[in-house]
Design goal:
Layout lengths: L11 H13 L4 H8 L3 H18 L3 H38 L1
Helix pairs in contact: 1-2, 1-3
Length: 99
């Protein structure tokens, strides 16, 4: 017989409050995790996501423009790849016709 695991879910607000409690420094991360019955690994994942979101939100104009340029370049490369794939399919069909 296997025991069914019960997973809890946390709202975004709860996750932020837990992470901020650990970042304040008045208690250790281990104590915060023990209080909320979560693993330190889960806490660290939430913390990293929160900090990454903040970094993106505070990114300067140059960083955002660089990302836009990369996305534009990727779209162009994807279009080129699509055209070349289509050309290869046509060439393959033409070769089969010669056989």
């Amino acid at each position: 017989m296997s025991e069914q695991r019960k997973y809890r879910s946390w709202t975004a607000k709860q996750k932020i409050e837990i992470v901020l409690a650990g970042l304040r420094g008045d208690r250790t991360v281990r104590e915060v995790c023990r209080e909320h019955e979560i693993s330190e690994t889960l806490y660290c994942g939430w913390r990293d996501k929160l900090l990454e979101g903040g970094r993106e939100a505070l990114a300067g104009k140059d960083e955002r423009n660089g990302e836009k340029e990369l996305r534009r370049r990727i779209r162009g490369l994807e279009r080129t790849l699509g055209r070349k794939t289509y050309e290869l399919e046509i060439a393959g069909e033409a070769l089969r016709g010669w056989e």
